[in-house]
Design brief:
It is a single chain. This protein has a nine-stranded mixed β-sheet, covered by helices on one side. It is built from five helices and nine strands, in the order βββαβαβββαβαβα. By secondary structure, the protein is an alpha/beta fold. It is globular, with a radius of gyration of 17 Å. The chain has one domain (5-211): TIM Barrel (Alpha-Beta Barrel). Strand 4, helix 2 and strand 5 (105-110) form a beta-alpha-beta unit. The chain binds iron/sulfur cluster (SF4). Its cofactor is S-adenosyl-L-methionine; Mg(2+); [4Fe-4S] cluster. Pathway: Purine metabolism; 7-cyano-7-deazaguanine biosynthesis. Substrate binds at residues 14-16, 29, 83, 214. This is 7-carboxy-7-deazaguanine synthase.
Amino acid sequence: MARKYAIKEVFATLQGEGAQAGSPAVFLRFAGCNLGYDVCPWCDTDWVKAEYTLDLEGTLALVRQVAEEGFGGEVPGLLLVATGGEPSLQFDRPLSDALRARGYRISMESNGSRPVDRSLVDWLTVSPKQPEFAQKDGDELKLLFTGTSTAGITPNADAVRRIASETRFGHYFLQAVDVPAVGGPNYGEVIHTVMQLGPPWRLSVQTHKVAGIP
Ligand code: SF4
């Protein structure tokens, strides 16, 4: 029986975060996460219920429709951001090959709790939510800075250093937790911590929230 993908939503926008911020992108958000809201009480994403359950052809058709509506077509070099939930639970070789054949550059945003096959993607962002994680290399490490106001693995600069030790990423970002219920956005303490950490750490701003886009 053909593989089906559980998908939460597909939409056209600009990548908001990290080193590729500002890039036109189709976001393919998969349903399902292997960590969940108990581990990440400040999670700002609804990934629980699949809105679509589609085979490969159906998934490609939905991505194409969104690209046509958003960008006038599947423009070569357009970013396809595989996100979730945890996209590595579902993103596989057939989907990667088919999307690349249509000209997409594939970016994945993973929590890094399980190894990611980097040959499936052109850009890998890892955003760990637990002190121990499996995927120690990639294009960017993006840590949410939970600080002192809520539970999390990043209360201070020393914790950030510990998590990032023995990792190999091209870029290192620290990002505010932007959830009012837990005291966010906590820009003040994130900026203070980036200044404490120094290079290669940089502040990641969620520019899509500033711009009012998805
Ligand atoms: S790993 Fe990511 S998607 Fe899953 S619950 Fe945590 S923040 Fe949300």
